[in-house]
Amino acid sequence: MDFLAPTSWAEALECKAAHPDAVAIAGGTDVMVELNFDHRRPPALLDLNRVPELADWALDDGRVRLGAGVPYVRVISELGHLLPGLAMAARTVGSPQIRNRGTVGGNLGAASPAGDSHPALLAAFASVEIGSVRGTREVPVAEFFTGVKRSVLEPDELISAVLVTPPSGPQQFSKIGTRNAMVIAVSAFGFALHPDTRTVGTGIGSAAPTPRPAPEAAAFLAGELEAAGLWSSRGALPATLATEFGRRVRDAAAPIDDVRGSAAYRSHALSVMARRTATWAWDAYRDENRSAA
Amino acid sequence: MTMRTDAPLKTSGAARYGLDVTPPGTVYGYVVTSTIAHGEITAMDVAAVRAAPGVLAVYTPFDPLPLRTPMSPLLGETWVPLQDTEVTYYGQPVGFVVAETFEQARDAALLVEVTYDRRPARTSLHAGLADALDAPPSLHGEPPTLQVLADGVESIEDALAASAVRVDATYETATQNHAAMEPHSAVAVWEDGRLTLYSGTQGSDLQAAQLAQALDVEPARVRALNPFVGGAFGGKGHAGVSAFLGAAAARDLGRPVKAALTREQVFTATATRPATVQRLRIGADADGRLTALAHDSWSSTTATPSFVEPTSHGTSREWYTTPNLAITQKMVPLHVPPTTFMRAPGEAPGSFALESAMDELAVALGMDPVELRLRNSSIAPPGRDLQWSSKHLDECFTLGAQRFGWAQRHRRRVDRDWLVGYGTATAMFPALRFPCAVRITLRPDDTAEVATSGADPGTGLRTVLSLFGAEALAIPPERVEAALGDSTLPPGGMSGGSTATASVGSAIAVGAPAVIDALVAVATGPGGLFEGREVAYADGRVFAEGDSATFGEVLRAAGRDEVTAIGTSAPGEEMTKHSFSSFGAQFCEVRVHRWTREVRMSRMLGVFDAGRIVHEQAARSQIMGGMIWGVSAALHEGLEIEESGRPANGDFASYLIPVNADIPTVDVEFVRYPDTLHNPVGARGLGEISVVGVAAAIANAVYDATGIRVRRIPIVLEDLLE
Question: Is A18 an 8 Å CB contact of chain B?
Answer without folding.
Answer: no
